[in-house]
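From the methods appendix. Each design record in this collection lists the tokenized structure first, followed by the designed amino acid sequence. Records were kept in a plain field format so they could be parsed without special tools. The example shown here is representative of the layout used throughout.

RECORD:
FOLD TOKENS (266 positions):
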């Protein structure tokens, strides 16, 4: 296993030296504060370091994109947060932004331009797929399971239906030494995990079954040993679903970046 020394560059420090990185990596609230999703951010940073990518993060200057505020109906709060971020991006002359959260990706790409903030926003699965295609990222090591991993992918709403990105995540998973199986509801027909649109921050509405349980059942029907996700909300909800079904010991939920790191053995 190759040991990689991680030294995350901070935009303020890079800028003070008169340098400009190729990408701003937007970590997002989940990547900064959620203990489980911090592991995903570390995994992606390992890949960026492995590829010798020129990037930087905002560090303590980064705040929320305002996506949950807008989804919950607080338009004033959203615009305040978005305008503050746009001012910060312009201060550092940011042109290209990498994201691991589809919610951050969607709002910066599609909704910030209405407020004067237009940037090239790249989801990390798109970035990884491109690096695999151009040969920069070569994956060949088996995933750490007793037998060949059987992987099913859950499409995040804000990556799939909102932005039409279905192929890139599958291209990355297809490059891994695993068997990829689809749920019967996939791509544009995929079911939501149940926590988008600020649902993460409110109580469940009346009904016979919560959405995350229904979606977990979709995944279980594939008999996959790994559920691959590409969104912090999806990861939380499907992990909860596996616990609810008492399957967390035999079926694991990994982010695509984590699977790539495992296959690279870095």
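DESIGN:
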């Amino acid at each position: 296993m190759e040991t990689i020394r991680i030294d995350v560059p901070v935009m303020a420090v890079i800028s003070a030296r008169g340098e400009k990185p190729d990408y701003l990596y937007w970590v997002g609230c989940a990547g900064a504060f959620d203990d489980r999703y911090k592991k995903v951010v570390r995994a992606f940073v390992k890949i960026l370091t492995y590829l010798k990518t020129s990037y930087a993060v905002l560090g303590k200057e980064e705040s929320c994109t305002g996506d949950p505020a807008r989804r919950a109906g607080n338009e004033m709060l959203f615009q305040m947060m978005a305008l503050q971020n746009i001012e910060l991006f312009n201060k550092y002359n940011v042109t290209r932004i990498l994201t691991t959260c589809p919610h951050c990706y969607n709002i910066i790409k599609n909704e910030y331009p209405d407020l004067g903030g237009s940037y090239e926003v790249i989801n990390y699965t798109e970035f990884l797929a491109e690096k695999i295609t151009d040969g920069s990222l070569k994956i060949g090591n088996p995933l750490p399971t007793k037998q060949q991993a059987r992987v099913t992918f859950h499409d995040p709403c804000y990556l799939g239906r909102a932005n039409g990105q279905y192929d890139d995540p599958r291209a990355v998973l297809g490059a891994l030494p695993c068997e990829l199986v689809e749920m019967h509801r996939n791509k544009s027909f995929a079911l939501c995990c149940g926590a988008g649109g600020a649902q993460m921050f409110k109580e469940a509405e009346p009904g016979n079954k919560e959405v995350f349980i229904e979606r977990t059942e979709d995944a279980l029907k594939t008999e996959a040993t790994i559920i691959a996700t590409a969104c912090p909300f999806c990861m939380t909800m499907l992990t909860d679903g596996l616990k609810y079904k008492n399957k967390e010991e035999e079926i694991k939920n990994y982010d695509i970046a984590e699977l790539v790191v495992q296959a690279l053995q870095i």
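APPENDIX NOTE: The chain has a mean pLDDT of 93.
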